[in-house]
Amino acid sequence: MYGAMLKAENFSRPAEQGVYGDEGVAYDGPIQTVVNRYIPEQQLAFIPTLVNLGLQENMESLNGDPLGAGRQPSNLRSSDYSRSYATQYLQLAGSNVEVVTEATVATVVFENEKNSSGELVASGVTLADGTVVKARKEVVLSAGSLKSPQILESSGIGNSSILSGAGIQTLLDLPGVGQNLQDHVKIQTVYQLKPNISSFDRVRYDAAYAAQQLDLWHQNETSAYDYTGSTIAFLTWSQVPGANTSFVPASSQNRSVSAIDAAKLGFLDESTNAPALELLFSDGYFGAASYPAANSSLYGANFFTLIAAVQHLFSTGSVHINASAPYPATADPIIDPRYLEHPYDAAALREAAKVLRVVANAPPLSDLWVAEYEPGNEVQTDDEWEAYARKAGSTLFHPTGTCAMMERAIGGVVDGKLKVHGAANLRVVDASIIPVQISAHIQTAVYGIAERAARLIAAS
């Protein structure tokens, strides 16, 4: 996977020295990557603060060892600071590639007869308008963790009880479809900056400034609109300053747990150096409520937000077709993330929130702000912190696992070649195949999955 992820990247080395090292980047891929040229002054205090709290600096966090605090590259075009994303691959495509937009896949179509190995044989897909697109060799689903399971279930692949409830004939009983939904959950605290310090919030309340910055961006000059955050830290629980880690289960506990939970318990073992927590600095207000209203006393104030994301949560959810919808194949699926159902998850998010206050109150970051805006000083006890975490916590939008690459007997949906168990020529290539949530943002991993899939398909 490491080589496949590098295959996607085209890194532009910054002129500024010391903001990123040499390992973990590549220069020949289609996805352009930069270390952001726009870093607010107050954000420069984040890494020194974490170092003062005992965390090491890590300016090569993409090399497979993300532990520490550093500047994180972003997928931006260095030429104009617009986003660089999957459409870059179309520039490499041959004349035989046709992209159809504004089209929704409803189902995969299969031959009437299975092959000699008893597997389904995909022959194409049906669009929502009834159009059938035929496949000569195979069908590849890349609809993501929330939609690929829906397409499989609409096509008759999934848990037979769910399919029958939706009036869909079961062609392949595969109970793992749509199960094992995992996500990163985040919590944040917000701080009001001193009056002489402005933040990204200025684009909210100062129309002239916002217009000026947008004009600079259009001219490809350094602008507030370049901002992508891009300063983060990954930590094990033992590295988290001031955290009470008595809630962390030992890897030797509950050996009867599922294979997924066993893997997560292993990641919590400090000897693996797998990050348990991510910390991020975000300039401006990005709390759970909203920026102060125009008629309030704090309108025109400037803030920064500290964010913590728990990496390996034990609560798993599901996503399935909406059996009660008139046309389940194209209706929004029913998503049940089951956030914070497991005691570890709630305790971890509580401690993560508390750690953010510890970071904010350490120098030099503590020298920059005047008041904790969210949650505020009235939150002090563990019960109050957990209540805040449950109220203000939210997704980091990293859903994975719903078409997991695992053995069929333990709930897997695809095999090591990304082929659906029991189907000869149907693959899933997206974040849904990741069986256990990774200690990272998932975007680069998805590019790596796609690069590996391309080679698997070409080889076959």
From TrEMBL:
Coiled coil: none annotated. It comes from the Eukaryota. InterPro entries: FAD/NAD-bd_sf, GMC_OxRdtase, GMC_OxRdtase_N, GMC_OxRtase_C. Pfam families: GMC_oxred_C (PF05199), GMC_oxred_N (PF00732). The lineage of its organism: Eukaryota, Fungi, Dikarya, Ascomycota, Pezizomycotina. It comes from Phyllosticta capitalensis. Residues 144-158 form the Glucose-methanol-choline oxidoreductase N-terminal domain. This is FAD-linked reductase. Belongs to the GMC oxidoreductase family.
